[in-house]
TrEMBL record:
Belongs to the BolA/IbaG family. Pfam families: BolA. This is BolA-like protein. Gene3D superfamilies: BolA-like. It comes from Potamilus streckersoni. Coiled coil: none annotated. One of its GO terms (cellular component) is mitochondrion. Residues 107-126 are annotated as: Disordered.
Length: 126
């Protein structure tokens, strides 16, 4: 098995620094999204286990944010809002972020369905 640190050394080193000085990444993401959007529903899913990274990594996340702050905002603007809140985490080791950003009405109309993430198709494991 290849050592993934060869392919992502800066990301893992930065992520280790972030984790050493702050709370775990998943908890930080949850806290920042909660404080910023006061969501009706929030889920932060660490999907790193689905990828070719060391066990216990916090590099791949899916976030589901349902907030009235998204009312009358186009989807691209919602994604930009979430990315802005998490810019530090994205610059320090979070490699992938899947965003589901809905208004409460859209969430109800969707049947509160998050959907399943596809399997990893890339990275150092190929």
């Amino acid at each position: 098995m290849k050592n993934v640190f060869v392919h992502f050394p800066r990301h893992f080193a930065a992520l280790k620094r972030l984790m050493a000085t702050q709370m775990p990444v998943e908890q930080t993401i949850r806290q920042k999204l909660q404080e910023t959007f006061q969501p009706k529903f929030l889920e932060v899913i660490n999907e790193s286990y689905m990828h070719n990274v060391p066990k216990g990594s916090e590099t791949h996340f899916k976030v589901v944010v349902v907030s009235e702050k998204f009312d009358s905002q186009p989807l691209i603007k919602r994604h930009r809002m979430v990315n802005e809140v998490l810019k530090e985490e994205l610059s320090l080791g979070v490699h992938a972020l899947s965003i589901i950003a809905k208004t409460p009405q859209q969430w109800d109309e969707s049947g509160n369905n998050i959907g399943k993430s596809p399997p990893c198709r890339g990275g150092a494991g190929l």
